[in-house]
Design goal:
36% helix, seven-stranded mixed beta sheet, globular, Rossmann fold
Length: 227
C-alpha cells in the first residue's frame, strides 16, 4: 500500500513518503516522533499511520499562513485558519486525528510543549536560513543517540541548504544516510569524512535545482518545482 495520502495537498512525493514511513517504523513503543511543519497533514498522516501503538506523534505548526510553501512567506490569517481546519479534517478522514498531538506554535516557541528525547525528527517548517538553522540545531540537539532526522527541500531551497551546511553537513554528530529527492536523512551517530563528502557531492545538483527555480520564476520554464 502506498504511504502517501494522495488526496491531501502538499509537496511530499511518493518516494519521500516511503522514506518517512520507514523512519517512523523504527520507533518502538514509548518513543516520540516530532514533525516541524505540518501544513494540511500530508506528512503527518504518513508518520501517524506508521507509528506503532505507544509512540507519541507531535505535529508542530502555528498555521499562521506564513512560510507555507514556495513563494508563500508572508503571514495570511485566512489561509492559516483554512490550513488548520483542513489539517484536522484530513487527519480525521485518514483515522489519525486522535493519534497526533498538534502544537499550534512556531517551532522556536514549542520546546516546552515536547518532552525529551526525540526518536525521529522531521523538519519541514520555515525554509528561510534563520528558522531552518534553529530547527536543525535546537531541535536536532534533542534527538537521542541513534535517532533520526529527516529534512525536506534540502539541496533545493537556498535557506535550508545553507542551514544544513552551517549546522549539519560537517557535524561529526550526524551521519548522512541518503535521500529521496530533496528529502535527506541522517542518523545521530558519529560521522566521518565520507558523510560530509557525500553531501558536498550534491552541490552540483543543488546548483541545478536553483537554476530550475530561477527559470520557473522567470516563466522561461514551466514546473515542476524541484522537491
Ligand atoms: C512546506 S509546509 C509543510 C508541508 C508538510 N510537511 C506536508 O507534508 O504537507 C511548511 C509548513 O511550515 C509551517 N511553518 C512556518 N513557520 C513555522 C515555524 N516557525 N514553526 C513550525 N512550522 C512553521 C507553515 O505553517 C507550513 O504549514
Amino acid at each position: 500500500m502506498s504511504a502517501l495520502p494522495p488526496d491531501v495537498d502538499g509537496w511530499l512525493t511518493e518516494a519521500q513518503a516511503g522514506r518517512l514511513d520507514a523512519a517512523a517504523r523504527t520507533v518502538g513503543a514509548g518513543g516520540r516522533i516530532v514533525e516541524i511543519g505540518s501544513f494540511r497533514g500530508r506528512s503527518t498522516i504518513v508518520l501517524a499511520r506508521a507509528a506503532v501503538d505507544g509512540v507519541e506523534v507531535v505535529a508542530i505548526d502555528p498555521h499562521l499562513g506564513s512560510d507555507r510553501g514556495p513563494q508563500e512567506i508572508a503571514a495570511n490569517e485566512a489561509l492559516g485558519e483554512d490550513d488548520t481546519r483542513t489539517f484536522r479534517n484530513n487527519l480525521a478522514q485518514h483515522g489519525v486525528l486522535e493519534r497526533v498531538r498538534h502544537v499550534r506554535a512556531m517551532s522556536s516557541d514549542a520546546h516546552d510543549a515536547v518532552a525529551d528525547p526525540i526518536d525521529v525528527l522531521w523538519v519541514d517548517g520555515a525554509h528561510r536560513y534563520g528558522p531552518a538553522l534553529a530547527d536543525l540545531r535546537d531541535w536536532g540537539a534533542r534527538v537521542r543517540p541513534g535517532g533520526r532526522m529527516l529534512v525536506h527541500d534540502a539541496f533545493s531551497s537556498v535557506g535550508v541548504t545553507l542551514a544544513l551546511f552551517r549546522g549539519v553537513v560537517f557535524s561529526r554528530r550526524w551521519r548522512y544516510v541518503g535521500r529521496a529527492g530533496t528529502l535527506v536523512e541522517y542518523v545521530r551517530e558519529p560521522a566521518g569524512a565520507s558523510s560530509a563528502l557525500r553531501q558536498v557531492a550534491l552541490l552540483p545538483w543543488f546548483a541545478f535545482n536553483v537554476v530550475l527555480k530561477v527559470l520557473t520564476l522567470l516563466k522561461i520554464r514551466k514546473g515542476p518545482w524541484p522537491h
